[in-house]
Structures are given as C-alpha cells and as structure tokens.
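Project standup — Tuesday

K.O.: blocked on the structure for the chain from last sprint. Re-posting the sequence here as requested.
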Amino acid sequence: MKKKTKTDNSIINHPSHYTTGNIEVIDFIEDQELNFHLGNAVKLIVSADKKTGEMDFENLKKAKWYLDRFIENYE
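H.V.: unblocked you, prediction finished:
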C-alpha cells in the first residue's frame, strides 16, 4: 500500500482535513482494524474542525449516530 507523503496533498487521495500530525485517519483505521461504524466515527471526529477551522457539530452528531448504531448492533 502506498503511504502518503508530505508533498501529496490531493483533495481526493489525501485530503488535509483527514490528517492529524503525521498520520492520515485511514491509516489509523486500517492499522487498528476498526469496523465500518467505528472507522466512520473516528473519521468524522478527526475532521470536525479541519475543513473550516470551526467546530462542525453536524460531523460530531454523525459520529455519535455511528457510535450509537454500533452499540445497538453489538450489545
């Protein structure tokens, strides 16, 4: 798998709002083998304040929805 380089800032392949520090969210999700629900929640939480610089509460509500659905399905 090709890893992201600092010079590759493609909005399609490596959007900056999904990168924190030196790690892209997709790499963390895959490394931790998170399922769809948890992976989406992590992605939405990490990007909640990255696109506009202000907290995007809609993203956080979506993340909560994925967490609630995960809990409902696996309890």
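K.O.: great, moving the ticket to review. Strands lie at 19-20, 23-24. The chain has a mean pLDDT of 81.
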